[in-house]
């Protein structure tokens, strides 16, 4: 049996109109300190998002999600936030904010394969 590693994750929500408190899950960020793993995955259903707010700019939402992906990857898409250690990056990404893209509550679990767990969470919570 493989070692089970503790991980934390947040679901990224798109909240097109904060005043209505409606949201659509569009991504997941998973952090596993023991595996030195921080990764985000996302998928935007443009039709469902437009049903919440016909005026939403889906391309801008995708740009925001690419920024989150860049922070996780530590590349130029994540700007200055991409240059800090993984734990701090996850802290930045899980911090509450009142923008169109918001992290949900932090959840945790155990896995032997963080990448596979991220795929499972994306399939279960976003698709």
TrEMBL record:
It comes from the Bacteria. Pfam families: DUF3037. This is DUF3037 domain-containing protein. The lineage of its organism: Bacteria, Bacillati, Actinomycetota, Actinomycetes, Propionibacteriales.
